[in-house]
Design brief:
Bound molecules: 2'-deoxyadenosine-5'-diphosphate, magnesium ion
CATH superfamily: Nucleoside diphosphate kinase-like domain
Distance between the termini: 13 Å
Number of strands: 5
CATH architecture: 2-Layer Sandwich
Number of domains: 1
Order of helices and strands: EHHEHHEHHHEHHE
Strand content: 15-25%
Length: 154
């Protein structure tokens, strides 16, 4: 089975806490091949563009503000079924659901609120493509996969 790429992001709440940042980083190292990694801080406009699909929802302003409130760490990661695997490790979006139904998930263990929920992961092949390009515009996914790893796909 082919390896797959996805985007994983450690959000500002988790980056701000050194022990949580380290724990999440170790989980990623143990479960994936890391292809790229960068620390970055969004401006409000980046936040608004990235989460445009949620514009108008009651939590949108809070989400936009939070995601541009401090440094994040983004990774391009690879393995078989990377998208599903990372989403599974993260657990449910909402923190109480995560805590009670998936206490061992990253959000179940480290999530603070429905907004401050530690991590982001792409939820489909299309969003992985779009979101990798959003965070890593210099990363040419098609060229990289063709030239370096014929077994990879996105
Ligand atoms: P996910 O991050 O699991 O893909 P999503 O795409 O539905 O979840 O929402 C994006 C982010 O928006 C989510 O990580 C945190 C915030 N969010 C979603 N639903 C929320 C809610 N009901 N209350 C507060 N924040 C919410
Ligand atoms: Mg989502």
């Amino acid at each position: 089975k082919a390896l797959q790429l996805t985007l994983a992001v450690i959000k500002p709440d988790a980056v701000a806490h050194p022990l949580i940042l380290e724990a999440l980083h170790q989980k990623i190292v143990e479960n994936f091949i890391i292809i790229r990694k960068k620390d970055l801080t969004w401006r409000r406009g980046d936040s608004e563009r990235f989460y445009a699909e949620h514009a108008g929802r009651f939590f949108y302003q809070r989400l936009v503000e939070f995601m541009s409130s401090g440094p994040m760490r983004a990774y391009i990661i690879a393995r078989e079924d990377a998208i599903t695997h990372w989403r599974g490790m993260m657990g449910p979006t909402k923190v109480f659901r995560a805590r009670y139904t998936s206490p061992d998930s990253l959000r179940g263990q480290y999530g603070l609120t429905d907004t401050r929920n530690t991590t982001h992961g792409s939820d489909s092949i299309e969003s992985a493509r779009r979101e990798i390009a959003f965070f890593f515009p210099e990363f040419l996914a098609d060229t990289w996969m063709k030239m370096e790893e014929p077994g990879f796909r996105l």
